[in-house]
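Quick log. Single chain, no ligands specified.
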Amino acid sequence: IQRSLLDQMVLRLAANGLDALSLPFYHQPPQESLMEAKETLQAIEALDSSGKITKLGRKINKFPTDVKVARMLIEAVERKCLSPILTVAAVMGTNYGSIRRRSRNNDPVNFKGWETLIDPDKEYQSDLLVELELFWKAKELGRKSLESNGVSSKGYLKASEIRGQLKDVLR
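-> predicted structure:
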């Protein structure tokens, strides 16, 4: 079971009043992994110290994303910076975590067209900030110009779809 799915499973069980550590599974995850999932959920305040779901945990449980991404979105609402965080979360939710075109070996560097879309004088501190900038530029381009500018039309459309879904959950 993937790490993020284990976190989600533990939270969903807690939402139903069940403790993942005490349940027998057909394919039993290691106890250590279950403990790590509970610790993660406590760190993001989704579970209290006794392992019970919190009010915040119930909000997080409604999201179709990794629990940490859901927590990030809820925090963005509170800090009034939702729009860029929503876009970053959406891009992270695509298959490759990027909207840049990629070669067959999954390398975005081979397609340099996207570099013309971002500010060359700006020093980006993270690939996610580059993706954020590309998302907004891609929105201006229109669907037909995406591929020729090094932006994956499938990736962009998927990120747009995910962004809309996350926005709906936040309403």
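The CA atoms of residues 102 and 108 lie 4 Å apart.
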